[in-house]
Design a protein that fits this description.
Elements (H helix, E strand, L loop, with lengths): L4 E6 L2 E6 L10 H14 L7 E6 L10 H5 L5 E2 L3 E2 L11 E5 L2 E3 L1 H7 L3 E5 L3 E3 L13 H8 L2 H10 L2 E3 H6 L5 E3 L4 H13 L3 H13 L8 H13 L2 H11 L10
Parallel strand pairs: 2-3, 3-6, 6-8, 7-9, 8-11
Antiparallel strand pairs: 1-2, 4-5, 9-10
Helix pairs in contact: 4-5, 8-9
Length: 254
Amino acid sequence: MSDELLVEVDGGVAVITINRPQARNAINGAVARAMVAALDELEERKDVSAYVLTGAGGNFSAGMDLKGFLSGDFPAVEGRGFGGIVEAPPKKPIVAAVEGYALAGGFELVLSCDIVIASEEAKFGLPEPKRGLMAGAGGVMRLPRRIPYHVAMEIALTGDFYPAARLRELGLVNQVTPAGGALAAAKEFAAKIAANAPLSLLATKRIMVESADWPLDEMFARQAEIMNPVFGSKDAMEGAAAFAEKRAPRWTGE
């Protein structure tokens, strides 16, 4: 694991921290490769059910490391995309904890997450057009699916920065915290998720992500293919037994 990406596991939650505070956590090739390595391991771990993605030193990420880009250090991994995550987000739920800047590729990392917790001082934006680039790591594709079309166009075409409060109004940010409080709130949110049955979490996220373009006459059949193994799992029996016995369930992921 690279020192530029830190991973800490506690209570079913893995906190993944982009650790380049001297560069406002700009993403380089080392971070992207470390992200792939970390997620490949964490996706297989039964003691991890949810993730928190954050940045060190008061910023989430200012996006692509432009100095690295100029030197040929492209911050992407084939098949996984920018930052090692935007083209293939993890199967397990992931919560973004945003302080400071989440700009360009940093905002696109946020859009790869399932839940967004942001400090009241956080700022989001896609300033690529100001630099002769475009938000090609999912920004111009994901943003209009998350917020109204005309507002998404405004953000993408102006390149301006937008506060967390505005994105909360638009439904993109789940919760706004006082300055410095995003990580603690995100960990609490992720722990609430991780307390649930692992197979249920995986199936729920998969169906919500994949069903957007399912034909109406196939929706329930496709859902059943993913859902039925959950209902036939040991954890489904455990959940029912725990409810009947008025105790906390003991999940095994089976």
